[in-house]
Amino acid sequence: MSAKDEALAKIANPETKVFWEAAARGRLLLPKCTACGRFHWYPRRICPHCAGTDIEMHAAKGTGEVYSYSIMRRAKTPYAIAYVRLTEGTTMMTNIVDCDFDDINVGMPVKLVFRDSPEGYPLPMFTKA
Amino acid sequence: MSIKGCAYIAGGYEHPTRKAPDSSLAQLHAEVALGALADAGLTIRDVDGYFCAGDAPGMGPMSMVDYLNLRVRHVDATDTGGTSYLIHVSHAAQAIAAGKCDVALVTLAGRPRSEGQATGTAVRPLNPNQPDTAFESPFGPALANMYGMVARRHMHEFGTTSEQLAWIKVAASHHAQYNPHAMLRDVVTVEDVLNSPMIADPLHRLDCCVISDGGGAVVVVRPEIARSLKRPLVKLIGAGESVKGQLGGDVDLTYTGAARSGAAAFEEAGVKPGDIQYASIYDSFTITVLIQLEDLGFCAKGQGGRFVADGNLISGVGKLPFNTDGGGLCNNHPANRGGMTKIIEAVRQLRGEAHPKVQVPNCRLALAQGTGGSLGTRHANATLILERE
Q1: What ipTM goes with this model?
Q2: Chain B residue with Cα closest to A39
Q3: Do residue A91 and residue B249 have CB atoms under 8 angstroms apart?
Q4: Among residues 214-273 of chain B, which lie with CB inside 8 Å of chain A?
Q5: What pLDDT, on a 0 to 100 scale, did the predictor assign at position A97?
Q6: Which of A74, B42, B59, B309 is the most exposed place for a label (fewest CB within 10 A)?
Q7: Strand locations in B5-102, DSSP E?
Q8: Does B28 score more than 90 pLDDT?
Q9: Burial class (CB in 10 A: 0-12, 13-18, 19+), B167
């Protein structure tokens, strides 16, 4: 098993493997229910909006805006955690990176960037658009 | 069918310790159990129902039933974090109404302070079997920054300020000065809160509850037993519970499950928020109090900042005395779970046994409100409405 595969094994389960494999190729996939036509988050095989079981994965546009955020000042290295409302309408937890923490505000437009975690798995994060 | 009037809280006990390096977890559970039973005028042999949550040692109720050598015919280990014990009281009333037990013992204890837990700033570990953690833990969600996001959104939508949040801590500190067991007994000002170090924007250190060891227990009994005891009669007249999460990605941090648990409890009790004379409100952070006060209907959504300002929560000063023991913000937060102490202080108020400086005169109707988990992600809420008979 390659180092990348080992890292993915730590984070993926059978339901989410497809998401993490795409993430490793730098793609953010969003689950969309064919029955109700709505995106959801976090990814599951059963739609949380209508209980539909036919879920398609769509490549995200990679844009959105900050719904809320907080800077963890008590961490060894302070970091910005946020909920980002994606252009597709669903909201995901993420980090805001590569910008001055003081510039972050609710409603700020953001765009997708991928960063590897210390363990080696690829994480969808966002930066100022 | 309703649980209104089906059960009474006959005994309550809060462990005086705030740091217990020389006690075991099971011992603390046993000490609060015996304390609450003694308070009620009952013994361990009278207990036929036992309730505990994830803070208890071992799997569910088995370790403590064995440790105490209880002879029970009903057990319940519902674990919804810090609000579990309010749900236990409600479930105990249901079990009593159904004839499944007569004397229900509920215990909580823990020693996070002795164990050196970084409760508010530690990130939850990743577990691929828990469906949400892979999509959250790598980004560093702790308690403080999750509640920080709730506060930030509230500020954005409604203009709530850090000064208004600080008033909640100020009110708690006014009450804690009279509690000899409270961890933080100094009265603080709005400026003190704002000048304390930033933990997770916009929450300062003094917006956060304490980390303490300790515990508490209550005894819930059927009406005939309550009337045979020598304690004031504290009757459960309404209860509600709810769980709220991220709504499938339609995340909305502006309200909590308290909107549903509160509405259910008020409907069952047949009373309105304006009737409540004393309220125990879960206070893991200042924002936890503010948003639940709105959701319970003590003020309109978005008006919580104005409602809590200028001492409105201080007993003898404001309209809604809250957490007269000092709450989690100043008194204690045993096992990182503040629900039990919320019940116990409400019982003290209804019995007229709160400290004279904070006792609400002729307190007949009180509310206890709990939150478990994280308001920033997924959480449970429970509401109890209690009446002095």
Answers
A1: 0.97
A2: B249
A3: yes
A4: 246-251, 253
A5: 98
A6: B59
A7: 8-14, 49-51, 74-76
A8: yes
A9: buried
Residue B214 sits at φ, ψ, to 5 deg, of: 130, -155
Nearest to A104 by CA among A121, A81, A85: A81
Contact B159, B305 (CB under 8 A): yes
- Domains of chain A in sequence order: 3-128 (2.40.50.840)
B254 C-beta neighbours (distance < 10 Å), count: 16
Q: How much of chain B exceeds pLDDT 90, in percent? A: 96
Asked if B164 contacts B293 with a C-beta cutoff of 8 angstroms, the reply is no
Q: Give the pLDDT score at A5.
A: 81
Instruction: Give the span between the Cα atoms of B353 and B39, in whole angstroms.
Output: 12
List the structure tokens of B195. 């000048």
Contact B298, B289 (CB under 8 A): no
pLDDT-derived band at A118 (thresholds 50, 70, 90) equals: confident
Question: Quick one: chain A helix, strand, coil %, rounded to 5?
Answer: 15, 40, 45
Q: Do B201 and A70 touch (CB under 8 A)?
A: yes
Distant-in-sequence, close-in-space partners of B68: CB < 8 Å, separation ≥ 6: B30, B33, B44
Cross-strand partners of A125: A113
- Cα A104 to its chain centre, rounded Å, is 18
Within 10 Å of residue B180's Cβ, how many Cβ atoms? 8
H-assigned helices in A1-129: 3-11, 17-24
The label of the residue with tokens 């956060």 reads B208
B285 by DSSP, 3-state: which? strand
Q: Which element (helix H / strand E) includes B122?
A: none
Instruction: End-to-end CA distance of chain A: give it in Å, rounded.
Output: 37
Contact between A72 and B144 using a beta-carbon 8 Å cutoff: yes
Q: How far does B143 lie from chain A, in Å, by closest CA?
A: 10
**Which residues does chain B have within 8 Å of residue A73's beta carbon, measured at their own beta carbons?**
197-201
Tokens 């913000």 found at: B329
State pTM to two decimals.
Answer: 0.97
List the 35-64 stretch of B: residues with Cβ below 8 A of A: none
Please, which residues bridge with residue A69 across strands?
A82
- Which class for A107: exposed (0-12), middle (13-18), buried (19 or more C-beta within 10 A)? exposed
